[in-house]
Design a protein that fits this description.
Number of domains: 1
CATH superfamily: P-loop containing nucleotide triphosphate hydrolases
Number of strands: 12
CATH topology: Rossmann fold
Order of helices and strands: HEHEHEEEEHEHEHHEEEHEH
Largest sheet: 8 strands, mixed
Strand order of the largest sheet: 5-6-2-7-1-8-9-12
Helix content: 25-40%
Distance between the termini: 23 Å
Strand content: 15-25%
Structural class: alpha/beta
Bound molecules: adenosine-5'-diphosphate
CATH architecture: 3-Layer(aba) Sandwich
Number of helices: 9
Amino acid sequence: CDGVESCTMVKNTDSNIGKIIGVMSGKGGVGKSTVSALLAKELSSQGYRVGVLDADITGPSIPRLLGISGERVYTRDEKLIPGETAEGIKVMSLNLMVKEESDPVIWRGPMIGEMVKQFYTDVHWGELDYLVMDMPPGTGDVALTTMQSIPLSGVVMVSIPQDLVSMIVAKAVNMARKMNVEVLGLVQNMSYILCPDCSTEIRMFESEEADEFLESMDLKLLGELPMTRDLNRISDGKLSEKIGETVTGLTKSVLSQLEK
Ligand code: ADP
C-alpha cells in the first residue's frame, strides 16, 4: 500500500467486487436507504450483479425495502453467506441476523464500525459488478471508519430540500472530499409532490437557492424524487412511470460519473 490512507483499507479476499457505491446523507431520515434500494434494484434490472451492504447498523431498513426479512444469513467455511432477493440482489444487514426485526442494537461506535468492516470482509459476496453501501447517517464516528476502511469508488449524497441549503449537506460533502472519496453527485429526495388531479409538481421550497448551493459546492444534481407513498412500496415493484424514469436517469448519471 502507498500512504496511510490506503494502508488502512480492509480487503475481501474471496470475492470479486467491482465498484462500491456509497450512499450518504448529512443526517438520518432523508431517504438514504430508499435511494440505496432504488439504485440497487435499477442496476439489477439492467443486468448487473448487485449487492447491498446495509451499513446503517442501528437503523437497518434495507431488508424491508428490498422485500426480504427473517434470519437469512448463515455461515459457511467461516464466511457469512448473504441473503438474496427474488431478483438476485445479495443483501447483508444486521436485520437478517436478529430474531426480531425490532430488536435494537445497543452498541458503541467502535463496535458498530467493526461490524461494518466485517460486513465487507467476512461476507461471501461472490462476483459483483456493484456493491451499493447504505452508509451510516451523518458525519460521525461510524461514517468516518467506513470511509477510512472500505475502498469506495464514490458516494451519492442524498438530501431533502430543507437541508440542501443548510450546512448539513456541506459538512457531509466536505467530509467525503477530505477523506479523498469522490462525491458523484446529489439526489434531492422529497423535492416536490405531484398534484393528484393535474399532475403539476408542487414545490414547497424555492429551487433557486438550491441551484446556487449546488454550484458553489461543485455538486452535480443526479435526480429529484417526489414525496410519494409509492416510495414506501419499493419491494412491490409498483413504481409510477415518472419515478421509474427518474430512477433510470439518476442511475445513468451515477454510472457515468463513476466512469470519469
Ligand atoms: P434514511 O435512510 O435517510 O434514514 P429512509 O430511506 O429510511 O431514510 O426514509 C425515511 C422514511 O421516509 C421511510 O419511512 C421512507 O419510506 C420515507 N421516505 C423516504 N423517501 C420518501 C419519499 N420520497 N416519499 C415518501 N416517503 C419517503
